[in-house]
Amino acid sequence: MIRPVAETPDTVTLSRPDYEALLDALEDARDVAAAIAAEARVASGDSEFLPAEMVARLCGGEHPLRVWRQHRGLSARALAAAAGMAPSYLAEIETGRKTGSIDVLKRLARALDVTLDDLVPPDSGAAEPRDSAAVHEST
């Protein structure tokens, strides 16, 4: 139990161990709230959990476009058709030979039901993706 060392109408003084315990409790409460919010997003369909194998592929440097396409169970031809592009152009983006225009990446993101940030490789020099897959933009 946290006990004040001194107390006035405007301030409360705590010992260092009690102060640290209070900070730890606050951090734990925030973690629990974040987990509950993430589970609610998944339950509502606004987000999804990524399988460990997919995370390993993304962390291993595989192009996010290919990982998401295969995760969605789409062939390259099917995704290219859904995004209104040539399969050869999709292959060039997946292999890193081309980056793809913003318009093309938006169409791919829409077809895969992911954010544009989810398709940007981490080494592309772009800003770090936000809460990947947890935020779906209207593209």
- Number of β-strand runs: 2
Which structural class is indicated by helix and strand composition? mainly alpha
CATH architecture of the largest domain: Orthogonal Bundle
Mind summarizing the main beta sheet?
2 strands, antiparallel
How many angstroms separate the termini? Answer: 50 Å
Poorly predicted residue ranges: 126-139
What is the approximate shape?
Answer: elongated
Strand order of the largest sheet: 1-2
Portion in beta strands: 5-15%
> What's the domain count?
2
CATH fold-level topology of the largest domain: 434 Repressor (Amino-terminal Domain)
Query: Please, what is the average pLDDT?
Result: 86
Tally of DSSP helical segments: 6
- Helical amount among residues, as a percent range? 40-55%
Give the CATH superfamily of the largest domain.
Answer: lambda repressor-like DNA-binding domains
CATH class assignment of the largest domain = Mainly Alpha
Which series of helices and strands comes N to C? EEHHHHHH
* Radius of gyration, taken over Cα atoms and rounded to an integer in Å: 22 Å
Task: Give a quick set of tags describing it.
elongated, 52% helix, 2 domains, 434 Repressor (Amino-terminal Domain), 5% strand, mainly alpha, 139 residues, 6 helices, single chain
How would you explain this protein's 3D organization?
The structure is a single chain. The longest helix is centred in the N-terminal third of the chain and has 29 residues, at 16-44. Helix 4 (76-83) packs across helix 5 (87-94). Mean pLDDT is 86; it is low at 126-139. The chain has two domains: 4-44; 52-123, lambda repressor-like DNA-binding domains (434 Repressor (Amino-terminal Domain)), CATH 1.10.260.40. The chain is elongated, with a radius of gyration of 22 Å. The chain is built from six helices and two strands. Strand 1 and strand 2 form a beta hairpin. It starts with a strand and ends in a 27-residue tail after the last helix. By secondary structure, the protein is mainly α. Helix content is 52%, strand content 5%. A two-stranded antiparallel sheet has the order 1-2.
